[in-house]
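User: Please predict the structure of the protein below. I'd like the answer in structure-token form so I can feed it into my own downstream comparison script.

Assistant: Understood. Taking the following sequence of 261 residues as input:
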Amino acid sequence: MKALEFINKLRSIGRHSFSAEEAMTALELSKLATLNALKRLKDNKLIVSPARGFYLIVPPEYQVLGCLPADKFVPELMAHFGQPYYVGFLSAAQFYGAAHQRPQRFQVVTTKNRPPIHCGRIYIEFIANKDAAIYPTRKFNTSTGTITVATPEVVAADIVTAPQHAAGISNVATILVDLAENIDINKLKDLAEINPELFWVQRLGYLYDFLEFSKLANGIAKIISNKKLHWARLVSNARYKPLQRNKKWGIIVNTKVEPDE
């Protein structure tokens, strides 16, 4: 079988990715001869390799990107890495209509640190969370299958935990406004059992109080009502000098929050 015939056969059954090992078996060539055959396809812009040993077939409509859109291959990529994952932060917020602008990078949360991937005009950022495998997720359909996405509760928890991955605390507040109607307080309570560090609950409660979502803020307050709170900064990497100390939430307000109108 010729290399071009191999990728056309994969496309005919709806597949857009393959491994070097799979190609070597199908082509019945040595490893070196297989890599040389694949290099010719790459030179002709028919395939790309965003990770070692992992290849994508790039149909004509995506050749301007120099890659497939991230949501069309991230599940197969993470299976290739053998790591659990979920789409998180701003990329996940998009699935719930809570991102005002299309993120410039596709954010994937997984259990280990990984360097980012640049594939043509596609940029994938990996964010480590040792508990990623047990966090609640949802499946969304894509044109190539399904993709695993953080629940609204996990998105909220993640962006208040690490606002630097969500364009800052003011953008976090903007996203929380849009997420509010999707937040289930019981699921938030369950998440607090999985991730018992209270600072993210305190931050989330403070922000929903600040944003005047009283029902949601009151529900969050009940989650920590019998807990001993320690003072937590609203933003970890901002200066310590407080603008305000909010006793209700145990939050040191050390930066201004200015959500979009």
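That's the full token string. The chain has ten helices and twelve strands.
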